[in-house]
């Protein structure tokens, strides 16, 4: 699909300088701007779907760069990573190659809120992402800053780089992260940057302002990095990763892919630390009168100055000391993100137990950047105003690598579908956290950097990490996102789980053949009832392994040997135990869907609906929901207003 054209040379007189530019232009199906987490997944998704794709980024050495904490996953975020993986994405696979500590959070709670988290080796992660990108068929990578978008009418047709190269495309995915008009703050000093060590995207930021897409400013921050050699870890608490079993992220991952595993450590702030922070507030870009930060920061990832301000009665906060990787002596002190002046950062760090002699290797800072109001996007992340232009990642007002990656995959796949002339692909809230994320963004917008939580999903019992593949891989295969190796592994797992559940359903146990103490343990005192193995597994206190170990009084196995693969066995256990709840949830989803799926025309005349308040009408006009379900989720749109809409639609059908 790739077309090259080199016309020229042509001379232009500009002032006193004589240019002889090569009028170089190239054409692709999909152009992705930015090689962060959204950009990498967008480019990979488009290329996997078979369209010619170009990834244009500032610097090829920062592909997959983690701007802040080198960790992937956590509650809600881990769910997104597994979904991206189930759809063929790179994040989980790269984490399995780069993770230096893996943990399952909420292990003792129900499977819906269990989540995988990994500490990554920053440079191994970059390397893994780069290898995946380089190895992807149909994908080209080019290092250049994009300064301009090329439009024809209301459609984007390409982009122009800093040195004037033109790349034309049928669809463009913009994933510029924190770089658009990025402004870094340390104390009262500030300067333009995309993040520490990287230039901002100022020309592109200005061009997007000209296009009058609704936008605002947000901010985020990062802590100073500490030299591990200067920390006395004996004064801190060690926090090892999980060992039995060692978790993996990707459905194709294996623990033997992980590099050497290391522990993290925990220390705490104290009254003196808090006093130091308070003493610097008069030079804080956030809190002092001379401070210039306008953007709103992430409520769930607050800076240490925010924490001390908001939770003034708390005498101490936890600080996790997280290694950045085997080839780095830097420690990421998770919990003290700050934009206070450097002298305050230095004193704060030295007030922490174990860090009395610590040396800072990089200062902490905050960054402000432009984002675009995501209510002006379709659910497939294409802008409503400019056809063919998709936005994904931090530019949509989210925060986090995982949120960015998930949007990147959705936008990249849809850009490819558009290039192929196919219908857009969307996910709804009952199918995936990715559906919840996209729906929250396009219907509610953001007032602060948005991050994912399990509490955002109303159907979280069905949207578990463990079944992300069962929910999504088939869909990914139909779209062309899932390759043969993943598909084969998925089919093997799906079929083995189904066959095993069938076997358990059909195999009945005669309690009379069991020893009396086993009968009692299994609550099988009634000898006239012969429950199936599935009935037994449904009991909260019976685990799959214990069931497979059941023997009759002579020692012969009754149920085993069962499935050897732990992931398959876990899936059988979860499906058996939660079937009742999940079935009830499915019925409720069906009921609500019937109403929520009702389409609302894009040119719907809200002024014609009698009884709608002006405020509700304006909110609906601003968001232009595609369905009744989307309308109902817009904040301020009451159930009564939804009923009025439904009546109006029915009357005018
Ligand atoms: P990015 O990872 O920012 O990638 C953007 C990419 O686009 C870069 O490769 C850049 O070079 C490229 N690019 C930009 N403009 C152009 C252009 N004009 N031409 C070519 N290439 C371009 N997340 C959290 O979850 N918690 C936190 O506490 C947190 N703190 C953060 C602190 C800081 C200081 C920063 C910078 C980020 C922080 N993040 C945090 C956010 C996290 O880094 C982002 O959410 C994530 O990286 C977003 O991914 P992205 O792909 O959207 O953008």
From TrEMBL:
<dbReference type="GO" id="GO:0050660">
    <property type="term" value="F:flavin adenine dinucleotide binding"/>
</dbReference>
<comment type="subunit">
    <text>Homodimer. Heterotetramer of two MnmE and two MnmG subunits.</text>
</comment>
<dbReference type="InterPro" id="IPR004416">
    <property type="entry name" value="MnmG"/>
</dbReference>
<dbReference type="InterPro" id="IPR020595">
    <property type="entry name" value="MnmG-rel_CS"/>
</dbReference>
<dbReference type="InterPro" id="IPR026904">
    <property type="entry name" value="MnmG_C"/>
</dbReference>
<feature type="domain" description="tRNA uridine 5-carboxymethylaminomethyl modification enzyme C-terminal subdomain">
    <location>
        <begin position="576"/>
        <end position="647"/>
    </location>
</feature>
<dbReference type="InterPro" id="IPR036188">
    <property type="entry name" value="FAD/NAD-bd_sf"/>
</dbReference>
<dbReference type="GO" id="GO:0002098">
    <property type="term" value="P:tRNA wobble uridine modification"/>
</dbReference>
<feature type="binding site">
    <location>
        <begin position="34"/>
        <end position="39"/>
    </location>
    <ligand>
        <name>FAD</name>
    </ligand>
</feature>
<feature type="binding site">
    <location>
        <begin position="297"/>
        <end position="311"/>
    </location>
    <ligand>
        <name>NAD(+)</name>
    </ligand>
</feature>
<protein>
    <recommendedName>
        <fullName>tRNA uridine 5-carboxymethylaminomethyl modification enzyme MnmG</fullName>
    </recommendedName>
</protein>
<keyword id="KW-0285">Flavoprotein</keyword>
<dbReference type="InterPro" id="IPR040131">
    <property type="entry name" value="MnmG_N"/>
</dbReference>
<dbReference type="InterPro" id="IPR002218">
    <property type="entry name" value="MnmG-rel"/>
</dbReference>
<keyword id="KW-0274">FAD</keyword>
<dbReference type="GO" id="GO:0030488">
    <property type="term" value="P:tRNA methylation"/>
</dbReference>
<comment type="function">
    <text>NAD-binding protein involved in the addition of a carboxymethylaminomethyl (cmnm) group at the wobble position (U34) of certain tRNAs, forming tRNA-cmnm(5)s(2)U34.</text>
</comment>
<keyword id="KW-0520">NAD</keyword>
<comment type="similarity">
    <text>Belongs to the MnmG family.</text>
</comment>
<dbReference type="Pfam" id="PF21680">
    <property type="entry name" value="GIDA_C_1st"/>
</dbReference>
<keyword id="KW-0963">Cytoplasm</keyword>
<keyword id="KW-0819">tRNA processing</keyword>
<dbReference type="Pfam" id="PF01134">
    <property type="entry name" value="GIDA"/>
</dbReference>
<dbReference type="InterPro" id="IPR044920">
    <property type="entry name" value="MnmG_C_subdom_sf"/>
</dbReference>
<dbReference type="Pfam" id="PF13932">
    <property type="entry name" value="SAM_GIDA_C"/>
</dbReference>
<dbReference type="InterPro" id="IPR049312">
    <property type="entry name" value="GIDA_C_N"/>
</dbReference>
<dbReference type="InterPro" id="IPR047001">
    <property type="entry name" value="MnmG_C_subdom"/>
</dbReference>
<dbReference type="GO" id="GO:0005829">
    <property type="term" value="C:cytosol"/>
</dbReference>
């Amino acid at each position: 699909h790739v077309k090259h054209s080199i016309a020229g040379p042509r001379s232009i007189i500009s002032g006193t300088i004589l240019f002889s530019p090569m009028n170089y232009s190239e054409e692709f199906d999909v152009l992705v701007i930015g090689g962060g987490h959204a950009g990498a997944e967008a480019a990979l998704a488009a290329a996997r779907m078979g369209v010619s794709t170009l990834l244009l980024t500032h610097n090829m050495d920062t592909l997959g760069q983690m701007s802040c904490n080198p960790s992937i996953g956590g509650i809600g975020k881990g769910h997104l990573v597994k979904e991206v993986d189930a759809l063929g994405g790179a994040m989980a696979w790269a984490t399995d190659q780069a993770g230096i500590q893996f943990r399952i959070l909420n292990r003792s709670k129900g499977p819906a809120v269990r989540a995988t988290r990994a500490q990554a080796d920053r440079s191994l992660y970059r390397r893994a992402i780069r290898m995946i990108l380089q190895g992807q068929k149909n994908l080209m990578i080019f290092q250049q800053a994009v300064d301009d978008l090329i439009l024809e009418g209301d459609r984007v047709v390409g982009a122009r780089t800093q040195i004037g190269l033109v790349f034309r495309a049928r669809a463009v995915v913009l994933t510029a992260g924190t770089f658009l008009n990025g402004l870094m703050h340390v104390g009262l000093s500030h300067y333009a940057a995309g993040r520490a060590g990287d230039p901002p995207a100022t020309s592109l930021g200005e061009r997007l302002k000209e296009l009058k897409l609704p936008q605002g400013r947000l901010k985020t921050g990062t802590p100073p990095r500490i030299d591990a050699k200067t920390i006395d870890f004996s004064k801190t608490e060690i926090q090892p990763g999980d060992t039995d079993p060692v978790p993996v992220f990707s459905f194709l991952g294996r623990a033997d892919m992980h590099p050497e595993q290391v522990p993290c450590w925990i220390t705490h702030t104290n009254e003196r630390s808090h006093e130091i922070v308070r003493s610097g507030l008069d030079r804080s870009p956030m809190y002092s009168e001379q401070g210039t930060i306008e953007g709103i920061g992430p409520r769930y990832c607050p800076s240490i100055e925010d924490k001390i301000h908001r939770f003034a009665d708390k005498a101490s906060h936890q600080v996790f000391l997280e290694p950045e990787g085997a080839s780095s002596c830097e420690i990421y002190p998770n919990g003290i993100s700050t934009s206070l002046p450097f002298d305050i950062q230095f004193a704060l760090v030295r007030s922490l137990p174990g860090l009395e002699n610590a040396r800072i290797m990089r200062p902490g800072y905050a960054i402000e950047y432009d984002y675009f109001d995501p209510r002006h996007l379709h659910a497939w992340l294409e802008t409503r105003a400019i056809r063919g232009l998709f936005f994904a990642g931090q530019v949509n007002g989210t925060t986090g690598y995982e949120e960015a990656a998930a949007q990147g995959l959705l936008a990249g796949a849809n850009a490819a579908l558009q290039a192929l002339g196919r219908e857009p692909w969307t996910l709804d809230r009952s199918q995936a956290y990715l559906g919840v994320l996209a729906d929250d963004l396009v219907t509610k917008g953001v007032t602060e950097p948005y991050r994912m939580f399990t509490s955002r999903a109303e159907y979280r019992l069905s949207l578990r990490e463990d079944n992300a593949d069962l929910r999504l891989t088939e869909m990914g295969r139909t779209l062309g996102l899932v390759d043969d190796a993943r598909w084969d592994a998925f089919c093997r797992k799906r079929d083995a789980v189904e066959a095993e559940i069938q076997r358990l359903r059909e195999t009945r146990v005669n309690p009379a053949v069991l020893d009396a103490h086993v009968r009692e343990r299994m609550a099988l005192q009634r000898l006239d009832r012969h429950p199936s193995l599935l009935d037994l597994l449904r009991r909260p206190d019976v685990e799959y392994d214990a069931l497979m170990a059941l023997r009759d009084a002579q020692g012969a196995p009754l149920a085993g040997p069962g499935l050897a693969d732990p992931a398959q066995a876990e899936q059988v256990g979860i499906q058996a135990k939660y079937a009742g709840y999940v079935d009830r949830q499915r019925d409720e989803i069906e009921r609500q869907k019937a109403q929520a799926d009702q389409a609302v025309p894009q040119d719907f005349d809200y002024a014609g609906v009698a009884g709608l308040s002006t405020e509700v009408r304006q909110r609906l006009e601003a968001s232009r929901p595609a369905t009744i379900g989307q309308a109902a989720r817009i904040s301020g749109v009451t159930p009564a207003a939804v009923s009025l809409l439904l009546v109006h639609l029915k009357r005018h059908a």
